[in-house]
Amino acid sequence: MKLLPSFYKANKALSRVSLHAACAALQGTAAKKTVPIATAKHGQSQSAFTIVGLSVVLMGLLLSGCSSNDRQNKNKSLTDSASGMQQVTTQGRQGKMPMDCTLCKAPSRAGLLMGGGGASGDSAAGASQLAAATTTGGADFDSGKMVFIKGGSFQMGSDQFADAQPIHKVTVSSFYMDTHEVTNDQFAKFVAATHYITVAERPLNPKDYPNVPADKLVPGSGVFSPPAHPVPLNNPMAWWQYVPGADWRHPTGPNSSIQGKGHYPVVQVCYEDCLAYAKWAGKRLPTEAEWEYAARAGKHFENYYWGKDLHPGGKYMANNFQGHFPDHNTKEDGYIMLAPIEQYPVSAYGLYDMEGNAWEWCSDFYRPDYYGSSPTLNPQGPKDSYDPEQPSLVQRVQRGGSFLCSDEYCIRYKAGSRGKGEPSSASNNLGFRLVRSGK
Length: 439
Known about the structure:
Layout: H1 6-10, H2 19-26, E1 32-38, E2 45-52, H3 54-63, H4 77-81, H5 109-112, H6 124-135, E3 146-149, E4 152-156, E5 168-172, E6 175-178, H7 184-194, E7 220-224, E8 240-244, H8 271-281, H9 288-296, E9 323-324, E10 328-329, E11 359-365, E12 396-399, E13 419-421, E14 430-431, E15 435-437
Helix pairs in contact: 2-3, 6-8
């Protein structure tokens, strides 16, 4: 699906325009707007410029997350969302979006703050935090269980997703992998030993968010906030909010707590936070190839890592969303949001929650065209990031989906599918697990 005008594609350093602003543009209030920009690679500010016809560009951006042709989204609120909107896809919406929507993913932090630019590089505070974690060895304190994954070859990718094609042969070396996502208890030990402060807890630099009022520039993060009624699905701000005080200790805001939830995956962690923990623990983030090789566990199923059926024999295999997204989760799998670790069947490789529950960071930069040129042996990802849907953002690969994914909406937890996220952005459905090289 080619939604972006040539002008958009030519300007890779476009600002991080929020989805809030995008909706205003679609209503005709931002057809011509002067927007500050930031370079994608280094987060360095550049001069402002005028984008003519911004509303058309942003309409394409909002809809570009949905590109699969194989099945139709069953959520009836999509029909409502199409009202009054012109057709902008080559296929035509016919009142519904195709599946493969990625809008269940939290928008970037800058987007949630309704800002324009936003630095993607590590801040000075972040660099010092990372250095402190690196010098405080924690391998003896990381209590995560690991399993040995013997290296081998597999067919990587999926023909159901444009950015996961072509399916190609990849060989990875042996490694050890955490059996489950890093938990609150594990992360708390790391913080106690290093006094590390996560990105979501740090003060915000006004220079990174030039369009955001000063009173909104407070530490916090993205939180899934389901509405009480059906909503059109072309605006993620209907179910995502920037919540001041949301961080790993308070996943959904200052009134929430992880007390008694030490065995839950830690969430609200940015890419930098995961790197810091990994260095302290003597581990590393998995490559995307290692992650998928481990998830497939020696099999190649097209639909799910465990097989062809979502609920084989009526059994729930993962924590995802049942019901009408985003307003009514029927909780058929036992959980409305995040679940504790090890609640669903273990894989043949001894791994839990490789689909659903929380998205997991990988080390690779994200490019949708990378598989066309990926090395066969131990691919490490592209040398930089570029996403034509969001050309201003540096993005890293995320895998596995979360409690918001389902076959009704957002299927990016299916076998071979890929997610993506801006490194300085977190949410309450985003965590990580680690690996260690091995023989």
